[in-house]
Every structure is written in structure tokens, then in C-alpha cells.
Amino acid sequence: MENLQMLFMGFSVVLTLENVMVTLLGAILGLIVGAMPGIGSLAGVALLLPLTYKFNPTTAIIMLGSLYYANMYGGSFSAILLNIPGDSPAVMTALDGYPMATKRNRPGQALFTANSSSFIGGLIGMLILTFMGPLLADLGLKFGPAEMTSLLLVAMTSIGWLVGESPTKGVVLTLVGVLLASMGMDTLTGSPRFDFGNIYLLGGIPFTPFVIGTVGFSQVLKLMEERNKKVEANLNQKLTIKGSLLTAHDFKRLLPPAIRSGFMGTFVGVLPGAGATTGAFLGYAMQKTFKSEEPLGTGAIEGIAACESANNAAAAGAFAPLLALGIPGSGTGAVLLGGLMMWGLNPGPLLFTTNPDFAWGLIASLFLANILTLIIAVGIIPFLIQILTVPVRMLIPIITVVCVVGGYSTSNSMYGVIIMLLSGVFGYILDRNGYGVAPMLLAFVLAPLLESNMRKAFIISNGKLDIFFDKPISAFLLLVLFAIVLTPVIKFILRKAGVSKKK
Amino acid sequence: MKKLAILLGVLLLVSMSVFAAGQTEAAGAAKTFTPSKNIDWYVTSSPGGGSDIFTRTIIDIAVAENLLNGQNVVVQYKTDGAGEVGRLLVSQIKAGVQADHTLLTFNSGDLMPMLKNTSNRFENFQPIAHMAVDKHLIFIGEYSKYKSFEEVLAALKRGERIVLGGSKGDDIACHAALIKEIGVTEDQFSYIAHDATSGAITAILGGHFDLLISKPAAASQYVEAGKIKPILALSTSRFPGNLNSAPTLSEFGYKNVEVPNWRSIVAPKSMSAEAVAYWTNVFKKVSETETWNKGYIEKQKLVPDYMDSETFRAYGMQFQKEYLASIGK
Amino acid sequence: MQTKKITSKMLIPIVTAIIAIVFIYFGITKYGFMHEVRGPLPGFFPTIIGFLLLALSVLAFIGSLKEESPGFPVENWYPALGVVAIMLSTLVIGMLPSLALFVLLWLRWFEKFSWKATLIGFAVIMAIVIGAFVMWLGVPFPKGFIYNLIAY
Fold first, then answer.
1. Residues A324 and A344 in one domain
2. Touching check for A421 and chain C: CB below 8 Å?
3. By CB count within 10 A, which of A67, A358, A395, C125 is most buried?
């Protein structure tokens, strides 16, 4: 197959000493940047962009690519160990990662699960990219506003799976999330919305400090209660790689979610506007519809596997439109694109023909980065677990500082810190009253996409609804939506009918 | 307790001196200005974007040509409030050493939302140099119903509805000027704003609407690949190269329409006159280098257009006046 | 007659209901609901969501009347107060010194760790912050009022 040959050619480009070293460096930096809350892949890639100017374009993009990719691995570390997601895709990882590390006392395994799933997801994503890259990119093009609206409506139903004990509370928060997300500049009209005259709110509520606050800082407030508990002595046994290995059974548990999410995540990454964060959310939500040995949210391996695999796969998938069409699927993609253009390369339909060694070199380097990052990530598990032996009383001020710094770094201003603080307090109060914040975060990410696509579709259709049914992909997705929504209703009716028959 | 207080006091002093950045001599009473400390250059959009590339390119050239007296430039990204916070901050810097060492990247795409959504105005800044200009074209995609602008005009006359996609910012103003000139309403010739031109390009490649408005840089590689075709040049003359086939509006009997997207550098209003003279000269030299012209202008398909501080001031004020009138303020 | 205390559990639906009303109000009056040709306007989506939220807030409120309220130990608010203190002191002495002070004071004075433990914790966190955020990523932290006075 021609693509396979090209891939091997790409490997020959990558496997020079310089390029391997650079991949390694990118992987290490990416892991570190990814693990730090507040510096997500966007900021990390942008800030490290100048570092790559010294190298030639191919080497430089290899380093950036591996950095971007390793970011997805790193985000899970602080999520699992501290319940503070290193970046937005890691939010879902924390939901099961942290309980698995603390309540179930299997931190090493949690990290190992995250790493393995990341590897599998990324591998699937890259294989698909290799063989179907341009095809997939073309498929992504077919998703215009109407199709995206229908797709996102389906995705929103997945929130239903996250609401937990009390549906009312879960939906209330989802709706609050939607409203909070609508604050800021409304792109379609170029005017501000719900800014209440405040210059900062013109830009809306920034996601990263919001997440750090609701998930991370509220966690710190909760931890204040636990500070006097004794540190468990048996943690000492698990501080080796051997002690962190997954059993064969564990592995069997993580494979299906990882593979499923790998495919789904790749596809999500290809879609315009949807990136690793959306992929991770949807991966987790999808897992809810399948059986997990332990319930999700309590430290189930399946939970970690589903979202970690999805977010790495989405990162790989995002390269498809970037390389094949020159279209960045996300903010980070835009930075990579800018970098590519600075080096005189023009990603676009012509890239694979005019610079094949570059394009395939990049793809090959992603494979290499995947392997290298896995090795490094697994290797440092014992060191990472040490963090858990630190007494809670010392962790609290340390994490507080990290939250403040993280909140500040997103936009280099105290606004981020204020948002972090307010969302932290808000999140803490909610949590104590039995309101889970996950639906709110998911709504915050998906709702703006849904709304803007819906309004664009209406502009195109001149205010009429038929566009959603005329376009085949959209019509199909709406059918899926009705099926999902109506199934429980039908079941309910059937049950009632069955009951009345028995009477 | 006393020990603690002493320790804290020492700690305070130590941290302050550790975190102090570089020398901080006063600029002195010299008549001519040369930079004597780090220069703070503000960018009100995210790293990696057009403004960032513009800024970093200029900095690199200025450093290479040794125009900064050996001082460093610290690029500060202030993206809060869609960039308005950063702009407001710069406009309010008081006179002094800091004002003389502060610069801000400022485009027409920054000016227009600022005028529309805040009370900040161009006169609150000190113009330094206008560097380059970008104009727009209208394109069709592979799946578009119309094959030329004549067909578009004919369709509009027949009462058909057409949708144009582009990015937010200056593309919107250009569309508004266009429909005003050809005499159709927004309802008939609607506009969809995307966060970035790449979003609109994605949509037109997928055939989701018929027309695209874009600046040359974002579109040229798709033109080369044959995926989109320019059908109208929103400028006073045709574009060069592979965009040459697109006629201007005057060829259809209308007045030419253009809403140039300019890139420039400004400073706090309170910057001293000597510093202004210095900086405007620095950027003049940058604009004359080959690295700038071949490495940036040509690559980004811009039109080089250096204006010194006073020429730029007149231009900017006129632009502001026209824009404010067009949005009814 | 016993009057029920306003508990935080009840407060949440009240707050969300207020949020809903605010968004509905602005959505309809300021941002517009629907346009013939251009379809839904900026106010459309938020207003509909606002109504849904209002309805559900009422439901949640009714539900909350039956439930117990959780307690909020005073101590749990300390980190939040700490952050406020950090923010205020940043204005004066800059962020990095404020963070350093916070860690030192918390570990030594509040948690009563030994000097050794305090300094180790302090060193670790400052290493992370300075090494990664300041030196490597070059994040420009606020330097504070006093510094700005001295520097110029």
C-alpha cells in the first residue's frame, strides 16, 4: 500500500539521531507542561515554539508534534494524583483516576492504566491517520453547521449519563454551565453578550481557571477535613514499577474502552471545532453506556481508559485536517499551523505532494513519540507516587499555590485567579450539597459549539428547520437522537403496559 | 515572634531583589532617546496567531539589526476581555520611563471591536508606525452554485438569497461595505462570522455555503490546489499572481470597495516625543530590510505600507471616523 | 411555630433561579430573540435555557426542603481566605513573594510543622513555581506596587 511505503519513508526521516533526541526532548517537555495545571497544550506549544526556531523545519515540527502529543499523557498525572487536571482533557480522567489512586489505593495502577490507554488511543489514531488521513479529513468537511448541530445534540444527551444520583440537580448544573458559557463575545454578531458592562467579562469566563477552581481548588477546601488522618502505611509497598503493574484481568478491562474510545476520539479530533477535550468527555460518556466492572466515578479502570484513550486519539485525529487541508481543528492546531508557516511550509492540500518527507516524517514521529512517552511515563510512576506519601497538611498549601499560579498563567492576569477562587468556592458548596460538577463542565464546552452551529445553520437555511432534515448526515444523526431520547420513554410505557396486564 | 518577624523581613527583601528584573536606571535628561531597559511589547491575542507572528518577526529583525541598544523585548500576551483589557492598560500608562518602553501591536481588527464595544478610542494611543496592509477577496468553492460574480449579481437581482462566510473582525466590515455599494440588504446577502478564516474555509470546502471572503494569506494555497477560485477583488486594483483573475467592483460599474486590514504598532499616549521619534525610526528601518520584505510581507501576501507616526495618526483617525459613522455612533 | 433556617441546600436553587431570571431578562430585552431571516439571535438560546433552568430550580428547591443541610466547618474556608490574602498582598509585594510568604506562614504557623519540614515544603513549591513557570515558561508575574515604586 502506498501509504505504508510513505510511512516507512517517514520513519527513515525520523530515525536520525538528531530527530530522535528532539522527539525525546519534546516528549519530556510535553509531559511536564501537560502535568502542570494552568498550562495546557495551547500555552505549552506556543511558549515552546521559539525554542524550535533553532532547528530546521522538519526537526522543529517533529519536536512540536511530540510535545503536543505528550501533553495529553501528562495531563493525567496531576489529575490522578491530586485531583487537579493538568489541562482540560484531563478533567474526566480525574473523575475515576483520583478515586482509584486514593480510595482504592492503587495509584500506580491508575497511572499505568492512563498511560496504556493513552498509548492505545494514540496508536489507533495514528494508524487511522496514516491510512485514511486525507479521506478522514474530507469526511470531516462534510460536517457543516447543520450536521454539527445534530451531532452535538446527540452528544448532549450523553450528559444524561453523567448526572448521577439526582437528575434534577444534574440538569440544573448543566443549564447553568450553558448560561455561563454564553457570557462573552458572541462571534456571530460581533457583539458582547452578558458582559454586564465589565471589560473582563467581554472575553467571557476562561475555561482553564474555571476548571482548576471547580475541580482543583474545591478539592483543596474539601481536603481541609482530612488533614488529620493518618497516612496509610501500606502505600510503601506500591512504590515500585512492579507494584504498579496491572494484572491480566485489569488489562482485559481496559482494552475494550480504550479501543472504542480510540476510534471515536480520532473521529472527534477530525471534526471542526472539536478537540481533545470534547473527545475525552464523549469517551467517558460513551463508556457509561457500556458495562464497567466497578461503577464509574468510584475509581473504575474503564473510566480512566475511556477518556485517556479518547483524548490522545483526538490529538492524533486533529492532525488529519491540519496536514491534509491546512485547517487547524483547534487553538493548539492554529499555533502549530503558525509555526509551520513561519518555517515556510504551507500545510494544505498540496503538502503531501510538495513536501512528502516532511508530512510523513511528522506522522512517523508521532508514532515514535507515542512509544517514547509511554516508556518515560511508566518509568517515572514510582517517583510520581511519592507525591501521595506527602502528608495532606503539607499538600494543601502547595496545591493552593499551584492553583493560584495555574489560574494566573492562562491569561497572565489576576482575572484568572479571581475566577479560580470563585469557581473553587462555588464548586465546593455544590459538591457538599450533592451536586456533581461534571455535567456543568461538559455543558460549558459543548454548548457554545452547539449554539453557534445551530445559528449558522439557521442563517444558511433562512430561518427554516428543513436544513436539519434535508442533509443526509444530519437527518441520520437526528434519527439517532430520537432513538436515544425515546428509548427510555418507550421502555417506561411498555413496563406500565406489562404491569397493567399482570393486574 | 521577633525571630519570625526578622526572618520575614529578610525574606521580603531577598525576594524583592531576586525578582527584580535587570537594571532600572532612570532614562536621564538626554535629549535623544535610546532604550535603557527591557521593552514591554503587548499583544492582545493568543500566541501563534497573526499578530503574534507579526510582532515576533519585527522583534527578531530589530534585534538582528541591533536597533534596540542591546535591550530585550518581553512580549506580554494580554488576552482578557477579548483584548480590551490589554489595550485599556496600555492607553493608561502614565508618562515616564515605562511609557517610553511600552509598545502595543494594533490592527484594524482590534480597533473596530474596541470602537464598537468600549469607550476607548484611537486618540488614547500614540501611533508609532503603520507597517502593512491586507485586503480581501471573494471566493467560490467547488460546490458553489455561482461561477462568477456576474452570476452572483444576477442572482441577487432575481431575488435569490446568498450566504457569505468569513472570519470575525474586518471581514464583517468589508461585507457591510460591499452590500451597501451594490445595494442589497443584509437579509438578502447574509453573513456568517467564524472565529477564524480557517473555519469559513472548512465550511466552503464542504459546500455548506456558496461564497467566502478572505484575505490572500489564508486562501492562497487553496487557490493553488484548485479548491477555491477568486471571483471578486475588494480593492482598488486587481491582485497579483494567482489571484489576478478576479475583477474589481469598478469593472462591474460600481465604485470600488475596500476595507483594508492594517497592521501597526502604537504606544501609550504619554510616550515622550523623543521616544516616539526613536521608535518610528526603528520600524522604518525594519520595513526596509530584505528579511521583512521577502521573509514576511511576501510570504504573508501583504502589501507593505510604512507610515510614520504622524501620517499614521491621520490615517487612523480617518479610519476611526468612517467606521464610527458606519455603525451609527 | 418553627421556621426553617435558610440552608445552603436551599440557597443553591434560589441562586440558580435568579441566574435564570437575569439571563431571561437580558436575553429578551437586550439581545433579541428571533429574526425572520437571520434566524435565532444572541438572546434566543440563553433565554430558552433560562426558562428551563427556572423550572428546574423550582423543582430542586422543593426537593431541598426535605433534605438535611451539610455542615460547613469553618476551617475549610481557610485556603480560600488564604488565596484572597495572596491576591491582596500581590498588589503590594508581587505574586511570587506573596506565595512564598503564604507557604511559609501556613506550614509553620498554622500547621505547626518543624522548621525543617517547612523549609523542605517551601523549597519544593518554590522550585516548581520558579523553575517551571518563571524561568522556563516566562510567565510574567505581577511585581507589586512597592517594586514598581522602587524600580522607577
1. yes
2. yes
3. A67
Each residue of B48-105: pLDDT tens digit? 677 888 898 899 899 888 888 888 888 888 888 888 888 998 998 988 888 899 999 9
Q: Residues B47-50: contacts with CB within 8 Å, 24+ apart?
A: B47/A43, B47/A46, B47/A47, B47/A49, B47/A335, B47/B77, B48/A45, B48/A46, B48/A49, B48/A334, B48/A335, B48/A336, B48/A337, B48/A338, B48/A339, B49/A334, B49/A335, B49/A338, B50/A338, B50/B107, B50/B263
How many angstroms separate the CA atoms of B274 and B261, rounded? Answer: 29
- For residue B27, the model assigns a pLDDT of 41
Q: What residues make up the domain containing A464?
A: 2-470
Higher per-residue confidence, A438 vs B130: B130
Are A352 and A486 found together in one domain? no
Contact status of B224 with chain A (Cβ, < 8 Å):
yes
Q: Are residues A461 and A487 in the same domain?
A: no
A392 touches chain C (CB under 8 A): no
Distance separating alpha carbons of residues B306 and B312, to the nearest angstrom:
9
What's the pLDDT score for residue B229?
Answer: 92
- Give one DSSP letter per residue of A82-101, joined into a string: HS--SSGGGHHHHHHHHHHH
Q: Does A481 touch chain B (CB under 8 A)?
A: no
Q: Where are the domains of chain C?
A: 8-64, 74-151
In which band, very low, low, confident or very high, does the pLDDT at B7 lie, cut at 50, 70 and 90?
Answer: low
SS3 content of chain A, % helix, strand, coil (to 5): 80, 0, 20
Residues A114 and A101: their CA atoms lie apart, in Å, by 12
CB-nearest partner of A412 from B77, B196, B206 = B77
Instruction: Give yes or no for a contact between A107 and A101, defined as CB atoms under 8 angstroms apart.
Output: yes
ipTM of the complex model: 0.84
Q: For residue B56, count other CB atoms closer than 10 A to its CB.
A: 22
Q: What is the pLDDT of residues B228-283, one digit of tens each?
A: 999 999 988 888 888 888 999 889 889 898 888 899 999 999 999 999 999 999 99
* pTM of the complete model: 0.80
Which of A5-14, A221-230, B279-288, C86-95 has the highest average model confidence (pLDDT)?
Answer: B279-288
Q: Looking at residue B282, what is its pLDDT?
A: 92
The dihedral built from the CA positions of residue C21, C24, C27 and C29, taken in this order, carries a sign that is: negative
Decide if pLDDT at A11 tops 90: no
**Tens digit of each residue's pLDDT (9 = 90 or more) over A64-94:** 778 888 877 888 888 888 777 777 788 888 8
B26: distance to nearest CA of chain C, Å? 7
Interface test with A, best of B58, B110, B189, B198 (most A CBs within 10 A): B198
Domains of chain B in start order, with CATH, are 39-132+262-326 (3.40.190.150), 136-252 (3.40.190.10)
Alpha helices in C5-71 (DSSP H): 8-29, 44-65
Q: Could you tell me if A428 and A351 lie in one domain?
A: yes
Residues A66 and A193 occupy one common structural domain: yes
For cell 484572597, name the residue. Answer: C84
- C-alpha distances in angstroms, B287 versus B61, B291, C61? 9, 9, 65
Backbone phi and psi for residue B133, each to the nearest 5 degrees, phi listed first = -135, 150
* Chain B residue with Cα closest to A46: B47
d(CA A216, CA A227): 16
- Confidence band of A243 (pLDDT split at 50, 70, 90): low
